[in-house]
Write a structure and sequence with these properties.
The protein is mostly helical. It has one domain. It contains 9 helices and no strands. Helix 1 packs across helix 2, helix 3 runs antiparallel to helix 6 and helix 6 runs antiparallel to helix 7. The longest helix has 42 residues. The C terminus is likely disordered.
Amino acid sequence: MVVLGLAIGLAACGRPTGDFGRAKPSALNDEVLPLVGKLAATIREEPVSWYNLTDDERLLRDRAWNFVRPPHVGDWWLEPLVEGQRTRILPVLDPRFNPTRYYLFLRAGDYRSSETRWTKVMDDITGDALLVPPFCEVAARVRRTDAWRIGRVNADQSVTPDVLVDTYNRIEENNRQMSWVWRALAYRLTSYRFAIERMALETPSEQMWAVNRAFDALAAQQCADGPAMSAIDFGNRQPRRSRLLDGPDPFDEPVLQK
């Protein structure tokens, strides 16, 4: 428990990032914390595979980072939680994140012009849209590899029970990684939609029409073998009040600015 507590504290420092929000290589975040996370996930009786990652599986996880980190980058509270979930030191937490935080982040920003906020939303949405196709490409390759694994392991009668478990656990880990990305995109869409609707009332702009078109384009993104973003329930363009605002939110602290 002491080791786990120390690991959680280290994960709270967040994952180091470089240019354009890409993750920087880090022995702590890429090797030590994931190893501790595997042990924590085993204790929680989650599927854990001790297989080495293929190049595509590693790339899948690297590209997933661009989506699962908060859209309001630098959020003092959410980013460490996301890193804890990524390394599996913490359980799945993202379904509890409050999508109104992005709007609060924009409002708290010291922008000289209200138009800059609209530009920020446009840049964030179009940036996400550009990242979806590359992620879909690697996800498709990982799915093909997993399908091959299933056929191989089912046909090989010499496969031992531990190898069978390791194989299916790796397939489930890959599936969960992809599912996290779909949830993260749904969270972003809900966040963007909420911000657009509130900003349209607070600081109307001619940019809102272009931003709405960009939003629709992102919502229409889909992978060939995965769900369209528009098929995910992100509130039908307008998040339901009961879903966003009713009841206490454990992650609803004020957004601090650095």
